[in-house]
Amino acid sequence: MDGAIASILVLDGVTNGAIYALLALALVLVFAVTRVIFIPQGEFVAFGALTLAGLQLGHTPLTVHFLIAMALLAAVLDLIAAARAGRLAAELAPIALRALPGVAIGLCALWLAPMKLPLVAQALLTLAVVTPMGGLLYRLAYQSLADASVLVLLIVSVGVHFALTGLGLVFFGAEGSRNPSFWDASYTAGPLMFSGQTLIIVMASAALIVALWLFFEKSLYGKALRATAVNRLGARLMGISSTSAGRLSFTLAAFIGALSGILISPTTTIFYDSGFLIGLKGFVAAVFAGLSSYPGAALGALLVGLIESFSSFWASAFKEVIVFTTILPVLLWRSWRDPHHEEH
Predict the structure, then answer these.
(1) CA atoms of 25 and 121, how far apart (whole Å)
(2) pLDDT in tens, 76-94
(3) CA triplet 335, 295, 237: central angle to 5 degrees?
(4) Can you tell me the distance from the alpha carbon of 134 to that of 278, in angstroms, rounded to the nearest whole number?
(5) pLDDT tens-digit profile of 103-131?
(6) How many CB atoms lie within 10 A of CB 256?
(7) pLDDT exceeds cutoff 80 at 334
(8) Which of 40, 149, 246, 303 could bond 161 through an S-S bridge, CB–CB 3.0 to 4.6 Å?
């Protein structure tokens, strides 16, 4: 291997690592706020990419109908809970307001989907459709189990993953799709040749990471999420709703997943089940950070991208095995540094 090949592999690793960094940040965020190991994170990647592919064909993706159905089902569950608590009259208006965004976005998407909008407008419509699914998914699958153990929440995540994967097969079929590039330019720098789409992936990932930092440091909602992540009970005593924090964290995770799918769909073919493998690499990066550090997750994602890139050169048939095997020494190191003590 010479320097030219190594630099090409580094560029490829950084590009993939930028996507894994976004997914790792989403996983750390969800786990810190809700204690949920969010296995279905990758499904939002597939939903984002394939929803955009459907819009490209002028079809109305079934994810639009799924969004409306989720919003209505969440409203029904809220109505039942309010009726059992004897607060139906008082809760009717808030429940309607919570259901309105999902239904309104779904109806707008039904109207706009056949128009074959410009690519950027279709990407924005895709984000508008997929992002609310995160908060609704929290309401439907996790909210009633918010105080359950991490193991129970993990089991629920596995079930949600299989459910969303099956729905993805129904929504999009077994054939994969690849979307057009957002920027067709290509550039050379010495031995390197990179496309405009590569620049978009790196710049969009960096911009989103900075935006998340500003959100957590400067905004009231971001500080509320940080407080919930540090101490759920203390945040609740200070008037921060753990339910609202959970919904917001899942909504952000869905946005990050959908954006990641939109960004990578011009560079690789996405199938209904592709998101699981991509999300799993983000999980490996998050484990490098102990599911607790955002900078550590970003650095872990970069390392995962580089390992994957160089493994594809040296042993392409085993690159996935090599990437996932790296989690073992990390887990061993963490178990030695922070040994677990049995509770009596």
Answers:
(1) 26
(2) 999 998 888 888 888 888 8
(3) 80
(4) 18
(5) 999 999 999 998 889 999 999 999 999 99
(6) 30
(7) no
(8) 40
